[in-house]
Amino acid sequence: MRAIRKYKKVSQSWPVLEALALFLLLCTSAIPTGGEAQVIDLGTRLELFVDHTLIDRFEGAQLRLHHPVDAGVAVRFDQPWEGAFSGYVTVIKDGPAYRLYYRCAPVAGKDGNQNEATCYAESRDGIRWSKPDLGIHEVMGTRKNNVLLAHSAPFSHNFSPMLDARPEVPAAERFKALAGTKVSGLVAFVSGDGIHWKKLRDQAVITEGYFDSQNVSFWSEAERQYVCYFRTFKTIAGERVRWITRTTSPDFVRWSAPVDMTFADAPPEHLYTNQTHPYYRAPHLYIGVAARFLPGRQVLSKAQARAIQVDPGYFKDCSDNVLLTSRGGNHYDRTFLEAFVRPGIGPENWTSRTNYPALNVVPTGPAEMSLYVQHHYGQSTHHLRRYALRIDGFASVGTPYRGGEFVTRPFTFAGRNLVVNFATSAPGGLRFEIQDRDRKPITGYSLEESSEAIGNEIERIVSWRNGPDVSRIAGQAVRLRVAMKDADLFSIRFQ
After folding, report:
1. What CATH number does domain 2-64+396-494 carry, 2.60.120, 1.25.10, 3.10.530, 2.40.30?
2. Dihedral of CA 249/253/255/261: which sign?
3. Does 13 score more than 90 pLDDT?
4. pTM check: above 0.90
5. For domain 69-390, which architecture applies?
6. Burial letters for 390-414: b for 16+ Cβ neighbours within 10 Å, e otherwise?
């Protein structure tokens, strides 16, 4: 009965029967997520609930995967030099500009063949895209095209640029890229404007790998080094599985010995591309939207394949994409094994190598971010679609109508306010309690003193009876307890 009274105090608007149901649920569903952890130093950085890093225990709550919403066609690969086998797309937000890079390939061919080129599109909002006439290379008898790299086999097969965030990077090397195949190794390119490129040096900078997909790199501010994630293969139970391997560098030229990524107890699956990048609002957290490939898993009949005129070699497999996260080192968390973006309705979306995501998630509005996914691979209607998510909205801690709560591991913070990104139903809500390391409520910050958060906001300052100021306990080891009903909590930050 004490537990029932306690939950009635949390929110007087929750009826007694609901509190009783919650009490019974908590008695049976406490899920510890690991032993005592060291104190985490949050400082003022944003933390997303995409893994169990901050979680000590759940009671009636769980991590939920959220799915991007189809926002329509972004780019059609409809120019003669583009076509059905365009791919390995990269999207970069460069100040007010959005830049999009992709392989142009109108016909299927051997990796790194001379028919491949690298194309470019640009946007001011990440929603409406244009293809400028660059006039750099003659392709198919014309220089009026959006090709920025051509006649450079094998590098257009998987040319993957990045905007170098390293402090004091030379202006002429503001953009960098890696490209190549197993035969050539990965060669480094640099550019000052993102359009005109040259090799950093002729010799490959990374040579140990298979490299036959998009091999991605970035400057990691958290690790203070360049990082590259690239394609290898691993033999598991007699099957050769597409794998992800990592290497690091202080200067983009000298790279460490490659190390295979680990996935804890997740089942081995063919991850064709990894698309790993620092999340733009929390660069210590790497987000990967990986193409999951199922070779030989045929969905379409021959008649269906003929009807949509897909290339005969590209309908006997299927694919989707999944969410990966990492906080550095050679480990990915696969918190969610389910598809992040499922294939769409219609046979066109169930061909081989369709549903492959572009590299990078970018902001496209004050409350929205976007990722981009290829549709209709191997078909004349091949195009790139935009998918939208709320800011920080990859996943959340969520509870049903009957409610629940979770408690974090101990952490320290800096700042005056706790800011949360959350959403509730009309009868739902959240209350917040700051505890000491031993799980005792700190006076002034208990659940009973917490104002209930109701609504749907990207940034809400949490308040208690005496106001929102938490600066008097900054620097102490504390825990956060959150009691929730029909709600999602996406991220937190002290500032």
Report:
1. 2.60.120
2. positive
3. no
4. yes
5. 5 Propeller (2.115)
6. bbbbbbbbbbbebbbbbbbbbbbbe
